[in-house]
Amino acid sequence: MKVLLIPLDDRPVTYSYPQLLARSAGWEAIVPPRNVMGSLARGAQIEELFAFAEGVIGRREADAAVLCLDSLIYGGLITSRRSAEPGKTFTARFDRLKKWKDLMGKKIPIYAQSSIMRISDNYDNTEEKEYWSRFGRELFEWSGCLHRLASGEKLTPGLLESLERRIPTDIRQDYLDTRFRNFTINMSVLKSMDDGFFDHLVFSQDDSGAWGLNVGEKDRLKSVSEQMKLTGKVNVYAGADEVMCTLLARLILSSESSKPALNLRYSPENCNTVASRYEGQEIGATVDAQIKASGVSTTCDVIKSDIASGNGGNIITMIVHGPSERQGDHITLPGLPDLSQSDTSRSVSSTIKLIEEAPGPVILCDVGYANGSDPMLVEELIKRPDLLKKVCSYAGWNTTGNTVGSAIGTALCAWYGTNSKVNGPAIPKIVSDSQKRCLFTRLVDDWAYQTKVRKDLQGEPSMQMLAELISPYIKKVSCALAFEPSVRLSFPWRRTFEIEIGFEGG
Questions:
Q1: pLDDT in tens, 327-337
Q2: CA-to-CA distance for 151 and 82, rounded, in angstroms?
Q3: CATH code assigned at 52
Q4: Average pLDDT over every residue of 440-468
Q5: pLDDT at 207 (0 to 100)
Q6: Is 138 contained in some domain?
Q7: pTM of the predicted model, to two decimals?
Q8: Most exposed of 21, 404, 495, 505 (fewest Cβ within 10 Å)?
Q9: Residue 450 carries which DSSP code?
Q10: CB 32 within 8 A of CB 72
Q11: For residue 81, how many C-alpha atoms fall within 13 Å in the half-sphere facing its CB?
């Protein structure tokens, strides 16, 4: 089976990692050349991107498609926030996309993602318009005030007026215009579900507080989708970079009559009620939304039914490893508390015990910290290769949504690659190698780099320093997994926020 993937941009987590997942399921991913995708400093080459996709569809090369609409409409996730192009330009691109159904010899399943424009609580304009470096936090708070007012909440007297005096009128207007333009496109995308072009749609909310105009937009999209009776075909939730992994897994499993069920466990048990950083909600809310988006179930009835029918092999234990009180963070922004050193020893002991007791494969969602692994947990696992053999999927990067969604997607694709009767005798070796590469990638990236090496680079993307610092950790991961690939490392966006772990030979 072949699937056309149009990623969110050219980063490893959005461009390279979903291809690994497809291979682990025994599918072939068809992706645009990387140099036409959007990046940090430039948008996608949209005409070339359309030409590539239309060529694939017109030649009937793909059996299905997963599309990140931000790339096709705006030129990428970053460009969607920065672009000054008028709304009619974006509408024209979306109208062109919908004409793809005329190119198809037969209808193929199409799953899509569109982002709700984020609002981040900082003065970092690396991924925003220039004025974010001066007014970012004021815009975040002002947006929250507007949302509270629209929801009937009372504000501290004088707060809104104070914020509006601090933010120039033209900047406030530009921000509102950009939001309205993008939200209008999202509403058009949602209403297009009536014509049946998309089989499933995700609106992803990237980087958010509990209040904000983006939250109001999320609620509105949910409400309209319910009015349109699309609750089974549309998901609106916190996430972004992991959504292609989720949609890919959902798509691949859609043809299976027997799907795995997730036996969800929290470690510690109360961590589902802890606030999830950068998401404006509790960890448990994010987990529930990510599971729902994947298309599988955790209900006790399903699990009991599987056991009763002798299908115990279809149950995967999903462990959410989290904090007891407050989620840590491996990134410390100016003016905010340092949360990079948390005592998670009790959580680690609980998680290790749950892995030991799991009767089959384990999905390990490591949300003890944002922006990297819980080092205490991974270091304990590295000492226990016997436990790592039970972990079919691990993630511990960026937000709770990023971690949980990618971990579930990885596990479900691996399950399909191992259990589906569709895959022929030549597939197992490809599937097995890809599964190992997925686990290796996440452990090296989320643990070795994000929690150990990154801080020592002090913001300098030096390849020499990276190679010297990370090599001992790569050896530990390789030894624990009994898997020693030849890898190449790079800074794809020429910054230290992310690295790319590539594999020699493909």
A1: 999 998 777 78
A2: 28
A3: 3.40.50
A4: 97
A5: 87
A6: no
A7: 0.95
A8: 505
A9: I
A10: no
A11: 22
